[in-house]
Amino acid sequence: MAATEPTIDRDSFGRVIAVESLKGGVGKTTITANIGGYLALSGARVLLVDLDPQGNLEDDLGYADDERNDQGESLAKALMFGGEVAAITNVRENLDVWTGGSALHSVTAVLSSKMGSDAKNAKLALAKILAPVVDNYDFIFLDCPPGDGVLQLAALAAARWVLVPTRTGAKDIKGVAKVAERIDQVLDVNGAIDLLGVVLFAVGTASERKDGTVVMKNAERDARADLDAMFGVGEEGGIGREIVFNQAIRHSEAVASQSGRAGLLVHELDERAKQEAKAGIAWWKIRSGELKNKQLTSATAGSVADDLQTIAQEINDRLLEAENEVLEGASA
Ligand SMILES: Nc1ncnc2c1ncn2[C@@H]1O[C@H](COP(=O)(O)OP(=O)(O)O)[C@@H](O)[C@H]1O
Ligand SMILES: [Mg+2]
Question: Greater confidence, 312 or 240?
């Protein structure tokens, strides 16, 4: 029996964003959780989909011990056999999650074997289960595992946009080109997909001169130049728009570790730092033993939170611009 040609109504998929990279440790999960969290905080309805068998999203959002956390069981079943996914609703106000985790290992095997006989349906496994719920959300972020397996392909096949985070090293930058090439592999089922942009992750802090001009570290400047050259930004025949987001995410191990341990988003950590300041909890009181068994929240949380919020705004701006172009095209 010939496989049926799958059809997906793409009308409502305009704000489905795959956060994808071949590498691990480049900020995919951090961005998914925090940008999603920030957009939800500003009133948008957001769904985060954790496609990673490692299920790290639970640490950023602190739902590891939620009784509804099934380690990706429900998502895995739906990806293999269709059907509804049981979301953890209201992880934060306006923020739902489809949990990932170890149950997703089996999906890779099943979809990989299906790729041989019925590639289109295998690629569309995620798009099909998203279709019934896309209208319920303003933004959907797909947090991908590292690598170039079939789950990542399914994310690309579901997404209108791809967001690629990277560190600034030369090898990291080369990896960005590979993700862009992967897009070609889903064009047969998802002609609308496009690159939303590249986010620089864990960069050295820029310094400010006396006259107020900001000087970025060489590593960031080089990475931006390499990426612009890669996509032909500013060149004739190039991509014709900016690719790298203006705002980068600054490096802070303290913020990363505290947020993961507490299950708090970075802006929530920043809120905690402010509460501590108000309560008179200061490092010198802790050092002198006046306050025992206290750990002070990193003061850098505010700066990292600002970075993430600025990127969320840039993402929203780029989406609005693209949507306006479509509207203008339609009315022209
Ligand atoms: N601003 C930051 N600076 C440095 N490290 C960070 C920052 N934010 C998060 N991290 C840490 O970097 C690591 C990789 O981030 P993560 O978002 O999990 O990447 P990925 O999902 O791409 O594997 C994690 O251990 C995370 O805690
Ligand atoms: Mg991750």
Answer: 312
